[in-house]
Amino acid sequence: MGLAWVVLVVSGVLETVWAGALEASGNFHRLWPSLLFVGALAASMAGLSYAVGHIPLGTAYGVWVGIGALGTAVYGMAALGDAVTVARVVCLLLIVTGAVGLRVLH
Asked: First-to-last CA distance in the chain?
C-alpha cells in the first residue's frame, strides 16, 4: 500500500476521533475535547487533501467517509451504548464492502 493510502486510512481514523471528540465536547463547552476535535479535524482534512493528490477524488473521499462512518458507528456501539442490531451490523459491512471495492477497483 502506497503512502497516500496509508495517509488516507489514518485520516479516516482521525475522522472517527474528531466525531467522538465533538460528542464529548458538550457543544464546545469542554476545553480538551474541543481542542482534540479541532486538531483531529485539521489533521484529517490535511491527510485527505494529501491523498486526493495521489488517489482519484471519488475513491479517496469514499474510502475516507467509509472508514470514518464505520469507526464512529463502532465507537458509538462500544462506548456510548448505541444499539447493536443485525441490521446495523449488516449496513456497516456494506460500507466496508464499498470502501474495499473502491480500493480494489482503483
From this structure: 12
Looking at this protein, which amino acid is placed at residue 23?
E
- pLDDT for 1: 67
Task: Name which of 46, 44, 39 is nearest 10 in CA terms.
Answer: 44
Do the beta carbons of residue 68 and residue 16 sit within 8 Å? Answer: yes
Question: How many whole angstroms separate alpha carbon 80 and alpha carbon 6?
Answer: 28
- CA dist 56 → 20, 70, 106 (Å): 28, 21, 8
Query: What gap in Å lies between CA 15 and CA 23, rounded to an integer?
Result: 13
What are the sequence ranges of the domains in the chain? 3-104
What pTM was estimated for this model as a whole?
A: 0.91
Residues of the chain falling short of pLDDT 50:
none
Measured CA to CA, the distance from residue 84 to residue 68 in angstroms comes to 18
